[in-house]
Design goal:
Distance between the termini: 89 Å
Shape: elongated
Number of helices: 6
Order of helices and strands: HHEHEEEHEEHHEEEE
Number of strands: 10
Strand order of the largest sheet: 1-6-5-7-8-9-10-4
Number of domains: 2
Radius of gyration: 22 Å
Strand content: 25-35%
Structural class: alpha+beta
């Protein structure tokens, strides 16, 4: 009788552990699905076009940026949490002005192809806890504004030699090169809205 009780208790403990593990896996699946829903338009586009991509859920690239690249409170913003890369874009920066989204897209494509190869991999990082998306430059260039769809977006080249920063309110795309712990803004593309 005692032997039966010990065996039953051990089986119950094993079953409880299995159930806990199953529950934990299920919770993690729900958490990842919820996070993926935050970037569903980008993921749907990538799936529809059969593009290769990877999702990074732990924000390791955004964390790398905030740890290794100086940040400052966003220009013209009085809130607590919105930041931009702390780089002087007033001097030695080639600025291109665009007057429409189409010309903006053309200039973004042109600048990307000057500094990067189509096969290069990059990571699209959004502020606010959204998952990061790793894609090729070619994939990004197929529809750049699809990936610049959040108020703060940083595109980090996988080898961490370039960051492309897009801040919605400023309507600027900044091409920032990282050279031996020095940050250099190489190009700035500004969208000028037509005033009615």
């Amino acid at each position: 009788m005692d032997n039966y009780f010990v065996q039953t208790t051990l089986m119950d403990k094993e079953k409880i552990e299995q159930l806990k593990k199953k529950r934990s896996l299920h919770k993690e699946e729900i958490r990842l699905k919820t996070l993926s829903n935050r970037i569903s338009s980008q993921l749907n586009y990538l799936d529809e076009q059969s593009f290769d991509y990877q999702i990074h859920y732990k924000q390791e690239n955004l964390d790398w940026i905030s740890t290794n690249v100086p940040m400052r409170k966003r220009d013209g913003y009085s809130g607590l949490y919105d930041y931009q890369i702390d780089v002087d874009d007033s001097e030695n920066c080639n600025t291109i002005y665009c007057n429409s989204n189409n010309s903006l897209i053309d200039k973004i494509r042109e600048q990307f192809l000057i500094i990067l190869s189509k096969e290069s991999r990059l990571i699209v990082c959004y502020d606010g806890g959204d998952p990061e998306i790793e894609i090729s430059v070619e994939t990004f260039l197929s529809q750049p504004l699809k990936f610049f769809s959040k108020p703060e977006t940083w595109i980090l080249l996988k080898d961490k030699s370039w960051i492309i920063e897009y801040l919605w309110e400023q309507e600027k795309v900044k091409f920032i090169q990282l050279q031996n712990k020095k940050i250099v803004i190489v190009k700035k593309i500004v969208l000028i809205q037509k005033k009615d």
